[in-house]
């Protein structure tokens, strides 16, 4: 019986295979679904961007794990085997990398460092160059959102968070529901999107919601591209309602060469790498779920099918 790893090369399937074998040398692993000779042997699959319907090929599958925090890629497959539990990852290192990225972006803006980079001849020595806004708001207060909140609290930011169901997070002003969303947005200087992609969060960031932000607020999207209505963003930047945007995720990835976001001066683009999945760090969690799955025990980080994450 064995564990199948089906990941794009860019996500390092071999690194995950080695990390799992370091922990459990006897483990039978198949790396790449094309290398599966006997589909009956596959009991657990770790996937990212797998071909639709692939998982129906394995009649003895006991659980499927997404190779990231997000469940949307897995759930986008309309041909998943019925009744097989789905799990995702939660990981401290991934949360640290995400926090580091967000801190870097927010501080670049707050201290206007990119403007200095563009204008090395600036000579007004001693001019104050610090945006006074201190309110950072996070959409999505799950594992990543809460970890990010802690880091910004330590840096002295006022941190708010909005989530589908109300959360209690020490030091964070927590909001949920539509009215509360407006209450949070109107005081926001930096808005960070970490919402999972579900039917409810698709197109959530649009002209209406982003116009509620404090004038000149800065948007950072590290959740999913589908949450942002892309054509609404540029007018908001051009009018000055938003002072800028940093986008790590896009409706279509990789972002097309000719996409208007690439040329816009107020948009900072990164290639979906605000965080990534470190094989060594997630291998113990994957192995634990594999063991639980084959012995019929309760799995860690089960995906909630009713809510879609
Ligand atoms: C990355 O996008 C993830 O979901 O982990």
Kindly describe this structure.
- With 309 residues, the protein is of the alpha/beta class.
- The protein has nine helices and twelve strands.
- Strands 8-7-6-9-10-11-12 form a seven-stranded parallel sheet, sandwiched between helices. It has a five-stranded parallel sheet with strand order 2-1-3-4-5, covered by helices on one side.
- Helix 1 crosses helix 9 (279-294) and helix 3 (92-110) crosses helix 5.
Please give the CATH class of the largest domain.
Alpha Beta
CATH architecture of the largest domain: 3-Layer(aba) Sandwich
Q: Helix fraction?
A: 25-40%
Mean pLDDT: 97
Judged by helices, strands and strand pairing, the structural class is alpha/beta
- Unreliable residue stretches: none
Give a concise summary.
With 309 residues, the protein is of the alpha/beta class.
Keywords for this entry:
binds glyoxylic acid; 5-stranded parallel sheet; alpha/beta; 309 residues; 2 domains; Rossmann fold; 29% helix; 7-stranded parallel sheet
How does the SSE layout of this entry go?
Elements: E1 2-6, H1 13-23, E2 29-31, E3 42-47, E4 63-66, H2 72-75, E5 86-87, H3 92-110, H4 113-118, E6 135-139, H5 143-154, E7 158-162, E8 173-175, H6 178-185, E9 190-193, H7 207-210, E10 217-221, H8 230-239, E11 242-247, E12 267-269, H9 279-294
Parallel strand pairs: 1-2, 1-3, 3-4, 4-5, 6-7, 6-9, 7-8, 9-10, 10-11, 11-12
The site of glyoxylic acid (GLV) has 3 residues, from loops.
